[in-house]
């Protein structure tokens, strides 16, 4: 049977050429963008998983920033505590000097003046803040989220730094003040120990967040990123199919020309 109304060979060649063109354009798009999934039609399920992983990565970055800020808070607090230690050490030194029975009343008055000034400096330290948040309160704990899902957190202490008032204008008063200053130094040591332990814990939390982020990024990369070697091979294949399809379509269209010879 010879028909000039329908060219089945040309239709089949056109269909295959269209498929080759579509696949070739998809490969070109993937290689140019570096992404295996450029639209939902490429991999609907993979895109959905990638979106969740990407959101987790962004949350992890935000939590890491928050943990870093909390660590900076504690480091600032420790810097103030370190200065408070210097102040208390000097007060302790003055207190010890004031127990010297060879010191005159004038000498003791000078010691008292310096001790009073140092106490005022210690009091001013209590008002120190980090980004508007008080470093020191009588009872304060700040909750820091340490996981991107918000399920884990830890508390950092707004240390209770208190002033120490001493009376060392007499030998007797200085002797009595020594136990007060010693106790204040011990309290300060406890505060710094707490601060150090909280800094250490935050550092471990930060390390875990970095490891988790790297793993999330790797998982997302396996889904979303293109395998350049494999896709290049596919592109070469589709390029050949496109060229051969074009040639076959031309031949299919030319095959009907033989019918004209029958009509001559």
Secondary-structure blueprint:
Blueprint: H1 8-33, H2 44-97, H3 105-125, E1 129-130, E2 133-134, E3 141-145, E4 153-157, H4 171-224, H5 228-254, H6 257-263
Antiparallel strand pairs: 1-2, 3-4
Give a quick summary of the entry.
This protein is mainly alpha-helical and 264 residues long. The protein folds into two domains: 8-34 and 226-258; 44-224, f41 fragment of flagellin, N-terminal domain. The protein has helices at residues 8-33, 44-97, 105-125, 171-224, 228-254, 257-263, and strands at 129-130, 133-134, 141-145, 153-157.
Q: What do you see in this structure?
A:
The structure is a single chain. With 264 residues, this protein is mostly helical. It has 2 domains: 8-34 and 226-258; 44-224, f41 fragment of flagellin, N-terminal domain, CATH 1.20.1330. 72% of the residues lie in helices and 5% in strands. It is built from 6 helices and 4 strands; from the N terminus they run H-H-H-E-E-E-E-H-H-H. The strands form 2 sheets. Strands 1-2 form a two-stranded antiparallel sheet. A hairpin with a 2-residue loop joins strand 1 (129-130) and strand 2 (133-134). Helix 2 (44-97) packs antiparallel against helix 4 (171-224). The longest helix is centred in the N-terminal third of the chain and has 54 residues, at 44-97. It is rod-shaped, with a radius of gyration of 39 Å. The two termini are 18 Å apart. The model has no long low-confidence stretch (mean pLDDT 87).
């Amino acid at each position: 049977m010879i028909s000039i109304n329908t060219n089945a060979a040309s239709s089949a060649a056109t269909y295959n050429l269209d498929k080759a063109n579509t696949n070739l354009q998809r490969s070109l798009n993937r290689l140019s963008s570096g992404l295996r999934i450029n639209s939902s039609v490429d991999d609907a399920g993979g895109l959905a998983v990638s979106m969740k992983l990407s959101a987790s990565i962004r949350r992890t970055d935000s939590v890491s920033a928050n943990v870093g800020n909390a660590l900076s808070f504690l480091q600032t607090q420790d810097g103030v505590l370190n200065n408070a230690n210097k102040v208390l050490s000097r007060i302790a030194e003055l207190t010890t000097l004031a127990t010297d029975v060879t010191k005159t009343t004038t000498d003791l008055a000078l010691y008292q003046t310096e001790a009073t000034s140092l106490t005022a400096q210690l009091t001013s330290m209590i008002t120190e803040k980090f980004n508007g948040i008080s470093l020191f309160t009588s009872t304060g704990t700040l909750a820091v989220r340490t996981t991107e899902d918000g399920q884990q957190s830890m508390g950092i202490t707004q240390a209770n730094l208190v002033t120490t008032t001493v009376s060392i204008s007499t030998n007797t008063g200085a002797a009595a003040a020594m136990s007060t200053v010693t106790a204040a130094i011990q309290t300060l040591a406890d505060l710094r120990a707490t601060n150090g332990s909280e800094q250490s814990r935050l550092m471990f939390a930060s390390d875990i967040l970095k490891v988790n982020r790297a793993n999330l990024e790797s998982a997302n990369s396996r889904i979303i990123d293109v395998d350049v070697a494999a896709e290049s091979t596919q592109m070469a294949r589709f390029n050949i199919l496109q060229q051969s399809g074009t040639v076959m379509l031309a031949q299919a269209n030319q095959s009907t020309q033989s019918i004209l010879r029958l009509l001559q």
